[in-house]
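User: Hi! I have a protein structure encoded as tokens and I'd like to know what sequence might fold into it. I'm fairly new to this, so please keep things simple.
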């Protein structure tokens, strides 16, 4: 899971969004992306944080099988249920 708050003065974050496109991410909420990848959280963080400004925020988190989750009214819920079934 990747969550971000891009609040820098610069309005163009092409590299950040290009990296998300390559990852084939799914966005259930504004500024939250889910990706399925073999890469670890640290390498994703390094790629995504390049070019961010000091006032920007980002969290990259690995969600493993068996994680408990619930959602309401999100897009891509069917995709998420297929990737991480609820118990």
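Assistant: Happy to help. Inverse folding works backwards from shape to sequence: for each of the 87 positions I chose a residue that suits the local structure. Here it is:
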């Amino acid at each position: 899971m990747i969550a971000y708050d891009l609040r820098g003065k610069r309005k163009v974050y092409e590299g950040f969004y290009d990296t998300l496109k390559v990852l084939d991410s799914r966005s259930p909420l504004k500024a939250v992306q889910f990706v399925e990848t073999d890469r670890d959280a640290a390498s994703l963080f390094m790629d995504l944080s390049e070019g961010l400004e000091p006032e920007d925020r980002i969290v990259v988190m690995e969600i493993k099988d068996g994680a408990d989750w619930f959602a309401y009214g999100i897009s891509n819920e069917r995709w998420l249920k297929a990737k991480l079934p609820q118990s």
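A useful reference point when you look it over: Residues 41 and 52 are 17 Å apart (CA to CA). Feel free to ask if any position seems puzzling.
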